[in-house]
Specification:
- It is a single chain.
- This protein has 420 residues and is mainly alpha-helical.
- The chain has one domain (8-409).
- Helices cover 53% and strands 3% of the residues.
- The protein contains 18 helices and three strands.
- A three-stranded mixed β-sheet has the order 1-3-2.
- Strand 2 (191-193) and strand 3 form a beta hairpin.
- Helix 10 crosses helix 14.
- The relative contact order is 0.13.
Length: 420
Amino acid sequence: MSLSTASSTELRDMRAELDRLVVKAARPVRVLTALGWPENVEARFLRSVRLGAPDSPRVKLTPPSGLPDDLDYAALIRRFDRGDPVQDWLARTVESARAGADLLRSIGTSAFTERSLEIYGRPSDPVHPGAPSALAAARHFLRATARLRVDTPPPELSDEEAIEWLRPRIEVAFPDSPPRLELDPGMASLASAGSTRIRLRQGARFSRVQLRQLLHHEALVHTATRRNGKGQPVLKSLGLSLPRTTATQEGLASLAELVSDAMDLTRLRRIALRVVAIQDALDGASFVEIWARFRAAGQSDEESYHSTRRIFRGGDGTPGHGVFAKDAVYVRGLVRVQGFLLTAIRDGHKTLPLRLFSGRLTSGDVVDLTQAFEEGTITPPAIAPRWVRNLDCLAAFLTVGGLMARVDLDAVDLESFTDR
């Protein structure tokens, strides 16, 4: 069917049919689910810590079953007319699923690290032309906050109490159908969000600051974008969580913590430390060495284990094996999203920030798919946080944040601010 001769109804039906094929092909690619470690690994490691001789975990992981064949992906990609921006986006979505499947097939092998770097990038890669790398930005955050001393609220709430704290706030944000809140003992992160449920790590303790972070990061970004995407009338694949959107999604979620007054210094430093730790792992540091560095930065034995596991979870814990580079995208995504939002507001494209919440999109996608938004192929988000709707306040926040990033705290002291 020619795009130039197809009616709007025929074009919509063709895109919807292709979209169904994309969803079917991409649904088995669930990267984080496939990288879970057995629960008993933590107990064994912490026992070795208590004995005074920490020993790197030995984990045997195997690729998940049911992944589509590479040839199936190639055949599907050939069906798209790349001259149609929507079909081009669908093709890129399939290409991301294909890359994710390649990553999953390499689990437990020496190829996993390189596949991970191909998808998520190296910490040393520039964020964008003319910008620093994620590694340089992370080291800047660590230097800038090294002498800032504040009292960190203790994690006083149990996992069950955390759910009770979150539940009424989730119900306000999602009045029609709030996502389920569940406990999961095998999680590397404190929380993880899908369109219908939000999981918290069973056995963990939480501070109220951390719960505000989870509310704004997991629920009001990750759950919201997945739900908005799955609710689209034509392109249900906007609800897929695939590697190509990870940087924008995590950057948007991290910005949500900042702009909603939920991110604290502990959280900021933890994000930065993960980027540095990925580079350390690529340089050959062992599981125990990186665990010790997290521990020296103030994390508990248990949290240091989970932080280190996030980095080595594609392999067996041996140096350089199974390094998972995803955590480098938090800093990269944050810098890119901030720049994108300010540029969009500056250039008068005031619909673009809100459109980021219409599904799992990259910042580039909302530009490339402008026509699809304008013609109604993609509808505005049903769920979005208040801060992205108030562009005046958002622009002020981003502008001041950019200005303060230029302040060298090492060059000033309290005497610098006197009137004498």
